[in-house]
Amino acid sequence: MPTTFPDSSDRPRAGRVRSLLRGGRWCLLTLAVLLVMAAVAWWALLFQILPRIGSFREALAQQATKALGVPVHIGAVSGRAEGWSPVLSLKEVALLDERGRVALHLPEVTARISLRSLSPTALWHQEIRLGRLVLVRPELQVRRATSGDLHVAGLKLAPSSSVAGDQRVLEWVLSQHLIRIEQGTVRWTDEMRKAPTLVLRQVDLDLRSHPGLGQQVHQLSLLATPLPQFGQRIEVKARMTQPLWTLSAQEAASPLPWWRRWWGGAPRVTDWSTWSGDLTVNLPHADVKSLRTHVDLPIDVEGGRGRMGAALLIQRGQPSSLALDLDVQDVSIRLEKGLQALAFKRLSGRITAGSERTESRVALEKLAFTTAEGLTWPASSARMAWRHAPLQGQINADVWRQTVGGQVSADRLDLGVLARLADRLPISAAMRRTLSDLAPQGVGRQLTWRWEGPADDPHQYQARGQIKDFGWAASAQKGRPGLAEADIDLQADEQGGQASVTIAKGWVELPGAFDEPRIPLKAMSAKVGWRITPSSQAGVPPELAVDVKKATFANEDAEGELQATWQTGPGVDQRFPGHLELDGKLAWGMANRVWRYLPSVIPFHARDYVRMAVREGRGEKVTFEVKGDLAGFPFKDDQGGRFRVHVPAKDVTLDYVPAGLQDPNGNSQTLWPAFTGLDGDLIFEGLRLRIQGAKAQLGGLGTGSFLLRDVEGRIENLASDDPRLDIRGQGQGPLNDLLRYMAVSPVGVWTGNLLHKAEGTGTGSLQLALNIPLNHTDQTGLRGRVSLAEQDQAGLRLHPGVPSLQKVRGQVDFTQKTLKVSAVANVWGQDISVEGQQDATGAPKFVAQGMVTAEGLRTASEWPALAQLAQRMSGQTPVTVTVALPKSTDQAASAAAQPELKVQSTLQGLAVDLPVPLNKRADTVWPLVLTHRGDDPKGLSDALLVELGSAPSATATGMPWLRAEYRRDVSGEAPKVTRGVLSLVQSTAGGGAIAVPALPPKGVVAQVAVPSLDLDAWQGMARVVRSPATDATGPGEDYLPDTLSLRTAVLNYQQRNLRQVSATLAHPDPGVWRAQIDSEQLVGQIEMRPETAPLASGPAGSRIVARLSRLSVPAAEAEALEDQAAQQLLTPEPTAVPALDIVIDQFE
Prior knowledge:
Helix content: 10-25%
Radius of gyration: 62 Å
Number of helices: 19
Shape: elongated
Strand content: over 45%
Oligomer: single chain
């Protein structure tokens, strides 16, 4: 069998394996020896050194001084074992600062040494690792020097410090597993702020450090009690992490070896750039003023007290965000230099702000406040993040101005409060101006806003949200409409958007569109969309189009719906007011509010006319339409567009010549009466206004049942400097209503108030056409005709005291300058013709001619006395009645002036059976003229003249001449005579001239001069004429003379004759008559007055007092008197006998 030898190439490999095995055995042996030595050393520490540790007190103090770099004094040292862990206890340990002052006083220190002290790292750095370090009631001095360096317990902590010395001590502290301070005292002195020392007592601190998953974790828990004036107990917590290994390259100047600079390594514990975590501070109750004394705050704060908390997030050694939890009162905050301070009564919520190099964030969580002026912000949350150019240093106002994009979201945003606080918020100046200009109101919910580009002018954006009770201020200067109390759900971007709008009890304001730009709304809903189309030409603004789909609305004036589209015009200079296409309809609308919705481009006087003319009533199924470029609105004659408003009016009051136009001061007394109950179409066509196919009533006059039909009206050009209304119509109804219309309208003035007290019966027809200059209504043109047909059975009484005209038929044509009457009427049973027109002077004059019969006069119920006298008449006579109206261009004077009425007749054919001298045969001619005219330009008095015969005829023929003239006050309800004169004269043919008494300044005087006078006959006639209901003191008593002068050759009274009588009869008081008589039989004075004292056997009567110088009674007359007296005494009826007081000087 052949022998096999190993391959020569395997021998070196086997040698290397044996070498590795030997090396491994030596490593294990060395490790075992080291572990044994460590165990022996640890045993020696526990059982040999610890029991005698007190003897090493000075050595330990020197080592601590050397290690810490500050003087250390130790009062006592003791040791014990806790299992396998040695524990050291030190008493009265003090660390002195560089000035020799006690910076840290430790009454009791307990330290448990950890087995980690035997680790290679600890042994390499010659560090003792503690499992627990407990400081009981320490007193620590913390000081910030004027240089800014921080000194803790005499140790200088500064970022610029080297690793050696103070930094090494800090690294040792932060590397311990647990450092606890119980019931400590910290004194904070800030030499930089020059603030008083702050003392914190009952300080409890836990500082822990332990490894985590790939990181080292540092935790801090601090509780401390400040002085009472500062606040309540403070709580501070922190949790920081540090990676176990850093792979990033270090700077070349680093003292680390090259492999660590390039390949990384474990970071030092004091390398703050590797720290990440959070720090929280909780102040249950603090005084902000005291806090500001010791702490630098990021904003300017004045006053304030309450709960405060802060949470600082740190990323890789840099502050990432700061969150403040607040519930404070009476605090004032200035968010940015140059802004006004925000003063709060109460402020609560969480405010978070953070920033990175190119992005900043602000978040508000459950933020609520009440400002000093009473503005309230309920708890709400919002977030804002925006990108900006890289920051140069800390956050400042440039962050906002350098914005390149961002987003905002809010669950609730009170726009009104935000706008009122805008001048105190750190926002851009443009946004502050916008908020101030818009003055928005409302509360937004679930709002989001994203944008790209500058915040003031983004090139891309998206917005979405709901706003309740939304509104903003209108601006006439900028042509911006206004809105209030609207609920809006919208979404929008740079290309357009859409919104749903609902309003309940709000308003829309359209400045410049209407006289009253604010339109109240009880309800409104609309879907609104808009498009924004960028222009392809540089420098040209984008095109904007708005689409309103079926908007419904309702308010106190109308209810309806509309749809509209609007877009900007072409070019830069023609963008506004744009092109509009609008169609709408109203279910109903108040007619008297039509003027309120007429665009202001229609001239004011035209809109004002519609306001005053269209009163009351409503429109139904109203339609309106606008189409065209609004620059040409309202499109006269449809040039460039179309504008229509069609109002089917119901029950409208049309004041076609409004009182405000006739007399702006409202003092006019002759206004054109309005048409009432008008039903018809009110149409606006561009600048034209038409009234079409209307019917109405004269509802404000008389019975209100005079019907008008075919009423047509037109204002051809509402924009004219001299707009004119042409209105015409015709109607039929009660004549009395028609008379009232003509009496109270200017027609009454033009007819001299002839119809002022006129009354009518039956019916009448009216045709009327008016041409009214709206700026000069006093120049109104008029054409009218009143027609009375036989079937109308018309009756007319011009005045309560004049005869009634019956069966009137004919017509009256009139204009503002002319009047023509042609009619026939029946008066007292006879037809008379009436003709009239202006005379040569332009004054209207009417003449009525006809016959008057005695039989007809007996039916003159208007004049009872005449009806009674007609019982003594027979035959008939012609009569002419003339009515002359005053001519005046002064409306007030015309209204006050009265027409002149003249009645003339020869009385030929009429026989009158009256006592002498007024007894007349039918064939004789006695001229009669009765005249009634005004006596005062103001219409307060009139004159009444009656003349029967004349002075020449009385002198020539011996016929009687009767003349009566009265002046009356007609300012009251009934005329009252103020003065007058009566004269009845008859002379023999060929007698001398007859004198008439002058009109007295006061009272009524009369004279009677006749050849003979039979008083008995005239007394009988007086009893016939007097009405049974009329007494001596009735309304006509003021027509009786106060003084009567009588001259007659023979006076017959009670069957006695007095000759050559000259007497004066006076009536100074009611019931008192006084006579002075001079005749052949009687000379003296007789007075009859009421007797107030009753007689012995009867009621009181009258008393006759006579003082006669002579009385002659012939024997025959004496016997007749005795018989008459005896008969009166023997009558069964008692006869009132007047009391007599008679004195006669000479009796025959």
